[in-house]
Amino acid sequence: MTAELTRGQNHPLPRTRLEIRVSAGTPIVAGATLGDEEGTVHGVEWVAHLGTPTLPGLEVSRQAAAEHRLAVDLDALPDTVHRVSVLLALPAAGQGPVRFGAVAAPFVAVTDLDGDEVASYTVTGLDRESALVALELYRRQDAWKVRAVGQGYAGGLAELLTDQNLSQAHQLAGTIHEAVARGLARSVPAPPARAADADRPRQTAAPAHGPDHGAAPQGTPGPASPVSPYDTQSPAGPQTPGGPGQHGAQQPHRGGTGDPASAGQASTPTGGGPIDYSHPRRQNAAPPPPPPAAPPSEPGRPARPVAGDATGWSMEERLYNQVWGMFEDLSRTTAAYRSAVDFADSRMEKELDQALSDPRSRIGGQGDAAREAARARHDQLVAQAREVLDRDVAQLVAEAEVVEPALPAAFARWDNPVWHAYRVPMEIPMALRLGDLHLPEADRVRIPLLMRLPLERGLWIDSGRSASLDGSVSDSHETRRLGLETAVAHAARLLAVYPAGEFTVHVIDPAGSGAQPLAPLVQTGVLAAPPALGAAGTADVLARLTQRVDLVQMALRGGAPDALPPGVDTSQQLLIVNDFPHGFDDRAVNQLRYLADEGPAVGVHLMMVADREESAGYGPLLDPLWRSLLRLTPVPDDHLADPWVGHAWTYEPALVPPGSQVLQQVLAQVAAARRSWGG
Fold this sequence. Notes:
Shape: globular
Number of strands: 23
Oligomer: single chain
Low-confidence stretches: 183-190, 192-286
């Protein structure tokens, strides 16, 4: 049974290896302090935060996000530590909320490693506070307990840390906020900021009644364009939505994605710095204004949608920004609708309570009339909100109908005719489509999940049971096959959008179980070498890629990026790992973690097809690996969050239609171009 704590309550902890899950309605910073018996924090080395995320027995998130998972091993804490305090804070910079009273109440849960909740606490009653101690784990007579604290601080992190007797409180608070400002953001990151005069006029719904409890954008890169996948930390930073996928680019957002995807699950290269959203062809001056919209079809009606009506130097950039705008519009109009429905529900509940509070009106015609009137007002409010939502959704549907056919190949679905006219490009595009995002209230609108290029965060195709929450795929072999097919489709897109010779793909398939899904890559000859088999093949590929990362890093540190030994492949590298952790020993696991952390900054990227449960034997050792990757699924799943409000968006992978030969045709052209380039 889960203990639902209220402020001040405590509960015993049955295990010492735990996970603390944090959920909020807006991106927040999560950290923890270690205290002695008196609760004193003796120095900055006793504080885990996104800049220093790992301490003995403790690891926290490396980015600001709407959801966090903190790993705790109480047995591994130093003997002098008697208290672990979990801290939450709103980022100091950005356009988002500056006080917890303006956002949904944060929820914190302590779980065991199987995901079973031990205790939970919803931090209510907050107002002007911008930082708080949510809960603490404390030791009493060699037994550990959890206590709900909920202590807020209007003075922010600096006041909180000062209250814990940390002498360097103000300096550390500044360091943490600087790290956030540099872009260590969330899984589904926010798009890059646009100039005020470049914003497109859009009609998003305001709540019909009551406040909109949705979170405002944080202005930090992030998950992950509509979903940019760079939402983490990295020398580049967390991902940003690159596409309604990234998590701004990641997401244009984070970590390097740009987009509704490169939306989360927004992140940047896993390193720890901001993500560079600049594109090789993008200029620094303000872009030209968008083309004028078509005149309204009738007076008083919205203008007809036009493909490319956002700002940008090229049609590609204008379409990219337009997709981002659609992603934000749908996020906010849905938040307004949900807020209005919540208001109507709470109002009806209050009116019914008032009607029933008088014993004389509980029975008879007077009580029935009061209840009927309350329900009628509720239905009217919901109907008004739905009308506004339907209007905005209809406008977005019309816009999607003109935008989708105009998208370039890198942004388009596999069934778009643009792929049938495919030619190997001369330069890389801004972003890559990883799939589509949609919400249950607006199922007709599909937002492309775009990830900014070059990749700044690896991808994890979840082939476990959790990848199909609705139970549509229950067979483990089927999920693995679908997972690898999804990885092949993503890899084919990456090969197709890079110029010849500028992108190289390696595959590790230790058990040889992926022969059939990998056939398009193998048969067309686009791989650098046949898939590596067994432990020996795995070790060889990992050693070569690790060496490449080391060599490029040394060249960069030495200020001579071109001074690489002969034979070093300078193209972007993608490693597809199937059936992890089969065939991986401890050394190989450490090399894989190294590639995930250090590789994106020097052009080595990771795509894992794996079931996390199968690597549970490694315990928290691999938690940083999973957190550094943008999780995608081979079947529809609602696990990605947008950077503005934090809705749970249903993600659908970008798969080739059944029976279509477009993937083989595209890969055949890529292979021919590679041979010509090599010759």
